[in-house]
Write a structure and sequence with these properties.
Layout: H1 21-29, E1 38-39, H2 45-55, E2 67-72, H3 74-90, H4 94-98, H5 101-104, E3 108-114, H6 123-143, E4 147-151, H7 159-165, E5 172-182
Antiparallel strand pairs: 1-5, 2-3, 3-5, 4-5
């Protein structure tokens, strides 16, 4: 799949703007894949590198790159889940342990970590950039034919859980991007009524 990815343009090179109906078609049918339906094979190293390159082209006011990636391959993800399960059990929190099913099923996860930079750029905009990275990564995985699900859950917010992942002070998990091959096509879900959510400012 990665042979379809064009070479990275040189700094300052003009980027052509053109109609790409195939992209619109993809986005109009875009559907996340339930995590529990994801199985081997995981994305190859080459495909994953291409996805990360696409993800990093997200809007980023100030060119701060206020985010980073933590890759959890199959064995690493299993160990991460084991340590989270031990944490939940030590607390006597059976519901939290049960919620790890989504993390355990897929063969790969990529944590997108929001890392706020000291800058005049507002923190809110840096957080939005991390969310845009998650969206790009999700869509890149789907466009390459893999299943992908963007989740958070308790272990994205719990300080002991994020310490296991290796987050520094002030960092947050913007999303765990769970990846693999879908056992079956995802079913369409209910979508919002765009008209009901849209207005025009009249001054």
């Amino acid at each position: 799949m990665t042979d379809r990815l064009p070479p990275a343009p040189e700094f300052g090179a003009p980027i052509p703007l053109r109609r790409t109906p195939e992209v619109l078609e993809f986005l109009s049918l875009r559907r996340s894949t339930p995590a529990v339906t994801l199985m081997e094979p995981a994305p190859s190293a080459e495909d994953l590198n291409a996805m990360l390159r696409v993800a990093a082209r997200a809007p980023d006011h100030g060119k701060l790159a206020p985010w980073r990636f933590v890759i959890l391959d199959t064995a690493a993800k299993a160990e991460f889940a084991r340590r989270l399960e031990a944490l939940a059990e030590a607390r006597g929190d059976a519901p939290a342990a049960a919620k790890l099913g989504k993390l355990k099923a897929p063969p790969m996860a990529v944590a997108v970590v929001s890392s706020i930079r000291a800058s005049a750029i507002p923190e809110w905009e840096q957080l939005l950039s991390a969310g845009a990275v998650c969206t790009n990564l999700l869509n890149a995985a789907l466009a390459m034919g893999y299943g992908c699900n963007w989740i958070t859950d308790w272990y994205a917010y719990d300080t002991e859980a994020t310490a296991i992942l290796g987050l520094a002070g002030g960092e947050r998990v913007a999303g765990f991007m769970l990846m693999g091959t879908a056992k079956e096509p995802p079913l369409e879900r209910e979508r919002p009524d765009v008209g009901a959510l849209t207005s025009r400012w009249a001054g």
